[in-house]
Amino acid sequence: MTCRELSDFLREYFSDELPPGVSTEFEMHIEHCGNCGVFLAQYRETIALGKSVGQHEALDVPEELITAIVQSIRSAG
Amino acid sequence: MEDPLVQGVRSGDPAAFETLIRQQTPRLLAVARRILKTEDDAREAVHQGFISAFKSRAQFEGQSQLSTWLHRIVVNKALDMIRARQRRPEDSIEDLLPRFLPNGSHNQRFITWPSNAEEAIDRERTGAIVHEAIDELPESFRLVLLLRDIEELSTEEAAQAIGITPNAVKLRLHRARLALRTLLSERFQLQGAAS
């Protein structure tokens, strides 16, 4: 398996959908190719960092927005 | 026994809606800010979302949480606003995807990121870097990544919200993550070099 072929199967690898025959070749390539090992670790960390984006955001809300929404609801009722 | 707040919302009680607005707006505004790029648009999406929720309150069946129901409404409002904008053709994602030599090897050597990207720079700074990188993704890829990885919609829900097939969502998500890796790599290496 080449680095390009490994990359082609990356999505299936991360969603546990690798075809049975490919799985062993995939693991063997990772074991012997340091560059793909780094790439895979970065891809994994990218997913984790992306998912954590909302966790540290400020939740500030201007009071005028709340007031405007409340007024809209009262006049729609 | 139905929650009094759910009961009030379903019957259109303005006081119940006010409680809901005060309770949910902070989180919903954060959601809209992630999807839309200006503060005015984000506020508008939340405002319009609550009006839609009020008008369609009878359809709330109580099978999901009120917060989940509102989250979906605001996400859809934000997507509608994006669709309504006249947009320039989006940039190609190809330049951000891995490249290979004719023998199938990567055309570059990857350098390990700081053991945990959060060690080199503080948590808040990391969040800002990731945010900035996500904003640089071509729009159709940015939206799929936001809906799946951050707003936690299922593949089917994201497909329905955007109007593409579930398979297209899976493929776009994968390409968005590959492109995001490239963008983060550039930033972490710059950060590493500067520190």
Question: How would you explain this protein's 3D organization?
Answer:
The complex is a heterodimer of chains A (77) and B (195). Chain A is mainly alpha-helical and 77 residues long. Chain A contains 5 helices and no strands. Chain A has one domain. The relative contact order of chain A is 0.10. In chain B, helix 2 crosses helix 4 and helix 8 packs across helix 9. Chain B is elongated, with a radius of gyration of 20 Å. The N and C termini of chain B lie far apart (58 Å). Chains A and B meet through helix 1, helix 2, helix 4 and helix 5 of A and helix 2, helix 3, helix 6, helix 7 and helix 9 of B.
SSE arrangement:
The complex is a heterodimer of chains A (77) and B (195).
Chain A: H1 3-8, H2 10-14, H3 20-32, H4 34-51, H5 63-76
Helix pairs in contact in A: 3-4
Chain B: H1 4-10, H2 14-35, H3 39-55, H4 66-84, H5 117-120, H6 123-135, H7 139-150, H8 155-162, H9 166-194
Helix pairs in contact in B: 1-2, 2-3, 2-4, 3-4, 6-9, 7-9, 8-9
Descriptive keywords:
heterodimer, A: 77 residues, mainly alpha, 5 helices, 73% helix, B: 195 residues, Rna Polymerase Sigma Factor, Chain: A, Arc Repressor Mutant, subunit A, 2 domains, 0% strand
